[in-house]
Amino acid sequence: MDSQPVHMPCPTRFAVDRLRSAGLRPTRQRIALAGLLFAKGDRHLTAEELHDEASGAGIPVSLATVYNTLHQFTDAGMLRVLAIESSKTYFDTNTSDHHHFFIEGDNEVMDIPMGSILVDGLPNVPEGMEIAHVDVVVRLRHKG
Ligand SMILES: [Zn+2]
What we know:
By secondary structure, the chain is an alpha+beta fold. The chain has a single domain, classed as Arc Repressor Mutant, subunit A (Orthogonal Bundle). The chain contains 4 helices and 6 strands, in the order ααβααβββββ. The chain has helices at about 10-20, 30-40, 45-55, 65-75, and strands at about 45, 80, 90, 100-105, 110, 135-140. The strands form 2 sheets. The protein has a 3-stranded antiparallel beta sheet with strand order 1-3-2. Strands 5-4-6 form a 3-stranded mixed beta sheet, with no helix packed on it. β4 and β5 form a beta hairpin. Zinc ion (ZN) binds near residues 44, 92, 98, 100 and 111.
């Protein structure tokens, strides 16, 4: 019985491509962090969470470097910052327009499925301005 080689996506190559197309030099640390960030589909995470993942994966990187790298990725358009809580910055790997659930207590961010929320009645904006983003956060808590 032949076992076919399983074709796994290569997280390193994917990360390098992602960095290059965002105009960032693919340094070792950026590749490692981008590999963690973008290998698992759409995610929302804090610098602390990514730092824990990096430590768990044996990637030697300081929290300050993780933080700086996340902001570089954001400036390059690879991530979007979510203003959900003032005490914590969440980074979203999905940069398209979408809205979020935030589960209070669990501090967990989830995407609201596309089309299940309709934002209507937006105000007129000042002369010379346009709406860049509308971010809706629906805050949830466990019942009882
Ligand atoms: Zn999201």
